[in-house]
Amino acid sequence: MAADSSTRDVAKAFAPGNISGLFKIIAHDDPAKMHSLGWGFTVSDGVIVNLTRSTSNSTQVTFNDEPINFPTVSSALHDLADINLNVDIASNLPLSSGFGLSGAATFAALIAANSLLDLGRSREELAMIAHVAEVRNLTGLGDVCSQYNGGCLVKTTVGHPLAATTIDMPQTSVFWRYFGKIRTSEILADHERHSRINQAADEALTTIEDAIQSNRTITFEELIALALDFAQSSGLLMDDRVKRSIDQANSNGGVATMIMLGNAVFSTAPFPGCTETMLSGTAAHLIED
User: In angstroms, rounded to a whole number, what is the distance separating the alpha carbons of residues 205 and 138?
Assistant: First the structure.
């Protein structure tokens, strides 16, 4: 007989990595209403979080077996329940590279904690706790929405952080390369850059919305090309290594752009130094034993 969830020793959850191609910042004093619009997609790689009860006087977090200070995860768990936990995060994707691992780790940890502690919170409630934690800690504005829904998504609804429209897209290979961290907090705290980012995003989102409303099929390649225009117009595409990889991918017959927000590239075709993942519709979920 399976153990009752209230007495189990461990809970495990998965959340996918998210690649954001373009984004618009929706500023608000209320963290639950501050979010982003934009386009992006989840991938087959992500994070697996193992959660156990802790006997220490604080929540302990590790990333790939190394202790890490992860305020987004710790604060979200504290908001969920006043209990200390051991949070073991495993991923083959790098942190602070544009894969939304802060949101993924936080959402997966909350899903696991909800099961481990038998709290009965809804999936939507958990996603909003994760989103608010991301906003408060300046680690993200829209990744949790993608990880909550899964797939290739466009977000155009102001005031609803978890709302997204799915763009039907077959599972396909995506090639990426990571060069170095971009501190999301520095971009999100730089209000002078917001207007340029948002203006560039508006142009791309208008094109995507027009295609959806007219029932015109918009291809993955078209979306990436729009994202590249955004990266250039917003002033976010600055790293020469990223520019070089985009050129190499294009020379190989692919379409490529910068991952938001990271010194990283994704493409439809392989290029030197890349790693392969897959566009995937799998959303965050509890892993049942």
Answer: 23
CA 177, 281, 259 angle in degrees (round to 5)? Answer: 25
Task: Give strand pairing partners of 25.
Answer: 36
Q: Which of the following CATH numbers is that of domain 1-289: 3.30.230.10, 3.40.640.10, 1.20.1740.10, 1.20.1420.30?
A: 3.30.230.10
Tens digits of residue pLDDT in 74-83: 999 999 998 9
Count CB-CB contacts under 10 A for residue 67.
Answer: 9
d(CA 105, CA 200): 29
CB atoms within 10 A of CB 26: 20
99 C-beta neighbours (distance < 10 Å), count: 30
Q: What is the pLDDT of residue 188?
A: 66
Helices (H), the chain: 71-80, 101-116, 123-136, 143-149, 184-188, 191-213, 220-233, 240-251
Q: Which DSSP helix (H) or strand (E) runs through 103?
A: helix 101-116
CA 26 – CA 21 distance, rounded (Å): 16
Phi and psi for 16 in degrees, rounded to 5? Answer: -80, 155
Pairwise CA distance, residues 220 & 267, whole Å: 10
Phi and psi at residue 247, to the nearest 5°: -65, -40
* Residue pLDDT, tens place only, 212-269: 889 889 999 999 999 999 999 999 999 999 999 999 999 999 999 999 988 899 999 9
The full set of domain ranges for the chain reads: 1-289
